[in-house]
């Protein structure tokens, strides 16, 4: 009888210990999650990401810690880890529209437009997309070079959310790429209506003015764009490149070169910036600088025929004829390959 009573008591004690441990563990998880939420709301995304990760580790799958860890990582521009966290979360929450839409955005930022579109399609089957969602869908089609679909979805985005300046900007870029200049101008004007000193929109208006053969007005617009972005933490090289290129066309090399040098400084990995600067150096007989820039341009963009042509011209001028011929042969190869890949017309 005693033995029979002892066993239940032992089990009861064990159960109590187990429940206490579980309660302590859950309390710790709740504390981590609550702390993480506080840090997230305060904008301390690094601390929030670490705490959400710890909450998930303490109690796997019991909270939305992975989802909010991913949101924290997106704020930190850490898209690789954000994608990993979202995929783990979606394994146990396959119908989470919040997670799916965020994963679609992350894949877009990782330059995976086709995968991003697949995820947005899944998300849209669960919850109707917002204007912001359709903005990213349209931007994905831009990355894929499908401008008709890009325009369709971006027009839908601004119809749903008429004050979405980013959607208007992407729509303007899509119109411009299709050569629909009046609509592109209207879209960029909308961006400037909501954000009067938007440097990117102003720069694109400059491109439109160039297309309309109004170089003087285009230059003024590029200068305005440059002035407006001086306080930006991440200024763009584009207005410097565009203004410098126009000045080259007008043979104003001494004005063009400092602008193109600034463009290269801002975007050292951009082949066209090195090409334009190298071409300007070449025209002013600064051969060493020209060689450096043009060789870098062909390294960064090996399929850029104009870069190889300019480098060939330089080698010819410095009497390196074999190297010059190699570059000219490369130009012919690129042009031949491009011609062979074009669709045949009837």
If classified by CATH, what would the architecture of the domain at 244-334 be?
Answer: Alpha Horseshoe
Count every beta strand, where a strand is a DSSP E run of 2 or more residues.
0
Please, what is the CATH homologous superfamily of the domain at 244-334? Tetratricopeptide repeat domain
What would you call the structural class? mainly alpha
According to CATH, the fold-level topology of the domain at 244-334 is Serine Threonine Protein Phosphatase 5, Tetratricopeptide repeat
Largest sheet: none
Bin the helical content: over 70%
Instruction: Output the radius of gyration.
Output: 28 Å
**N-C termini distance:** 100 Å
Unreliable stretches (pLDDT < 50, length at least 5) are 1-27
Number of helices: 18
* Mean pLDDT metric: 90
Shape: globular
State which percent range the strand residues make up: under 5%
What is the C-level CATH assignment of the domain at 244-334? Answer: Mainly Alpha
- Reading the helices and strands in chain order gives HHHHHHHHHHHHHHHHHH
